[in-house]
Backbone:
């Protein structure tokens, strides 16, 4: 069960990691506090969504499966396109420190965790609430650590021509959105 939980956590955090890299690369005023804030929000969402999915059960899963990928696609495409347009003005950077933006990105990258939460009892043997909490905390913790590392990896990349990095970051968000739509 531990290995399955770690694999699930790594898979669920992949999109959040990629977006964290973009966040770090796009913000010139990046500090440790900002990295912890963004990684914390992503980790929190990745932790809470499986709990919510587990609580909803199979009936809710069918309703979520119908549109989760469309919501992720829409949010990520919107932010990605905005970043690309903003990158054309060399003095303007896209701020990922606004709470609304961070929440939208965290929600967009964690919707799949909601659906996974429904499958946890059969896929990972998570049948009790206590095992659910341990699994959710593991998923959130791994996401936090990977996002924090990704954020500072992005910060290192962001030292290069920031408008180009911002445009590439926007493209990455668009590609993640397309992936979400196709795999949905």
Residues:
């Amino acid at each position: 069960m531990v290995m399955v939980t770690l694999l699930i956590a790594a898979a669920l955090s992949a999109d959040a990691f990629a977006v964290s890299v973009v966040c770090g690369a796009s913000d010139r005023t990046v500090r440790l506090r900002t990295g912890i804030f963004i990684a914390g929000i992503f980790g929190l969402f990745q932790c809470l969504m499986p709990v919510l999915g587990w609580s909803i059960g199979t009936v809710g899963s069918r309703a979520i499966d119908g549109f989760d990928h469309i919501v992720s696609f829409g949010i990520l495409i919107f932010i990605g396109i905005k970043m690309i347009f903003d990158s054309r003005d060399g003095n303007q950077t896209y701020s990922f420190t606004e709470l609304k933006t961070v929440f939208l990105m965290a929600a967009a990258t964690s919707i799949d965790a909601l659906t996974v939460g429904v499958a946890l009892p059969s896929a990972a043997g998570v049948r009790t609430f206590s095992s659910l909490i341990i699994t959710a905390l593991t998923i959130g913790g791994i996401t936090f650590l990977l996002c924090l590392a990704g954020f500072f990896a992005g910060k290192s990349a962001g030292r290069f021509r920031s408008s180009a990095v911002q445009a590439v970051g926007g493209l990455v968000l668009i590609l993640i959105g397309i992936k979400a739509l196709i795999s949905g």
